[in-house]
Design a protein that fits this description.
Rossmann fold, 435 residues, single chain, 6-stranded antiparallel sheet, 6-stranded antiparallel beta barrel
Length: 435
């Protein structure tokens, strides 16, 4: 059989390690809780096969934990062995009256601990074997049966129930109706986004409970199981490349405030809006992914789109300090030596980049004239060449000139900035994220 799952509630690290070492020869997997509240939460979330419970712990003592477990229908059948230094007969009686299966006083001999644990697990195994099939749980670990395999098994057997999944502190659940996924939830993600996120879990525990019903409307899943699995695999395959595009995950994700505020004034799809809200510079990429109601693929696609549009204070965009926009508009420019015409390639309120092989040297002062779509008056300003190359560079920069505006007035700068921001916001919404 698979290993028994034992929860050890022990706040002293040395004693916890000694106990784990003594249990090493048994077919058990031991998880450790460092205080009573953590023990109660782990027991309710993972429903272990046995709990070894210290009586004296911070947060909640062992007696309080036992009372809470036995009062909860979902945990009341979990066997408990008190393993404590409290030697008073009154304490032992109290523990047994609370429903504990045994009471051992520290220090306990290794042979005695193993014998008592095996005895309790043997009784638990016998009880499980005689339980009616309709009340038994299908349970196990995702390391041995992945979620895609589980979905296919439950579909083939046309099972109805709630599949609960845990991985560390993360929780998720999928409601099956006659083998079909009907509802799904995982953190802030609901519906298909929750399924796609859960498909990425490769470790943790699962338990199928014989429960049915409905979930919230936003958690409803409409796609067929096989369509979900195929789409989920495709998204998982694309995630590494998307993450690589975004760069280091330790840096905060921040959108230029003027762009973020502009987007939030618009009517946006719920998941899209939430990603914008999360890009406030206080969260790293993993924190944005965890807080988003989209699955990881959907969130990353939105962020990559923002990055490519220069909307994030990241890399070259952060060095510029202002949003830039690639836009095709005719620009006339002249120096004291010649007059030229070309196409704008990149525009900001501070300057312009012209894609042209007929360049002037760095330091040359120019006169510029251009008109923006939807803006009544043309712009006329002096500029200075700050970068130029007559050919494409080895680093991928196109032939052209970078020109810094010299005498653009505040009103004209404001007009330029509003034009850039509005076009960026329009482009950010062109392709709504899936999931």
């Amino acid at each position: 059989m698979d290993a028994w799952r034992v929860l050890l509630a022990e706040d002293e690290a040395l004693m916890a390690q000694m106990t784990v070492d003594m249990l090493a020869e048994l077919p058990v997997e031991v998880s450790v809780a460092r205080n009573g509240r953590e023990a109660l939460e782990q027991a309710q979330a993972t429903r272990p096969d046995l709990i070894l419970l210290d009586a004296m712990m911070p947060e909640l003592n062992g007696f309080e934990v036992a009372a809470a477990l036995k009062a909860n229908p979902t945990t009341q059948d979990i066997p408990i062995i008190f393993l404590t230094a409290r030697v008073r007969v009154e304490d032992k009686i109290r523990g047994l009256e609370l429903g504990a299966d045994d009471y051992l006083v520290k220090p306990v001999r290794r042979e005695e601990l193993l014998a008592r644990v095996k005895n309790v697990l043997r009784r638990a195994g016998a009880h499980r074997a005689t339980s009616p099939p309709e009340t038994s749980l299908m349970r196990g670990r995702l390391e041995t049966m992945s979620l895609p395999n589980l979905i296919q098994v439950l579909e083939a057997e046309r099972r109805t129930g709630t599949l609960r999944l845990t991985s560390g502190t993360r929780r998720g659940e999928i409601l099956f109706t006659q083998g079909r996924i009907a509802y799904a939830m995982e953190g802030p993600r609901k519906g298909e986004a929750a399924v796609y996120r859960l498909l990425a879990w490769n470790e943790g525990e699962f338990a199928l409970e014989p429960a049915s019903g409905t979930g919230p409307a936003e958690a409803q899943v409409m796609k067929a199981n096989q369509s979900l699995l195929m789409e989920g695999v495709r998204r998982l395959d694309e995630i590494p490349a998307l993450r690589q595009t975004l760069g280091p995950s330790e840096e905060p994700v921040k959108m230029f405030p003027i762009l973020r505020e502009g987007l939030l004034r618009r009517t946006l799809p719920g998941g899209f809006r939430q990603v914008v809200e999360l890009c406030d510079g206080t969260r790293t990429l993993p924190q944005v992914l965890e807080g988003s109601s989209l699955d990881d693929w959907g969130t990353l696609r939105v962020l990559v789109r923002f990055l490519k549009l220069g909307m994030l204070e990241h890399g070259q965009a952060a060095k510029r300090g202002l949003p830039h926009l690639g836009v095709q508009i005719p620009v006339d420019f002249q120096s004291l030596r010649a007059f030229r015409g070309g196409q704008c390639f990149d525009l900001s309120a501070r300057g312009i980049f012209l894609r042209t092989s007929e360049v002037f040297p760095v330091g040359e002062d120019l006169l510029l004239r251009f008109k923006l779509p939807g803006v009544a008056h043309p712009f006329r300003t002096a500029g200075r060449v700050v970068w130029s190359s007559p050919t494409d560079t080895p680093k991928g920069l196109p032939a052209g000139m970078g020109i810094q505006f010299l005498d653009l007035g505040e009103e004209e700068r404001g007009t330029l900035e509003r034009f850039i921001v509005e076009l960026l916001l329009d482009r950010a919404q062109v392709e709504e994220p899936e999931g």
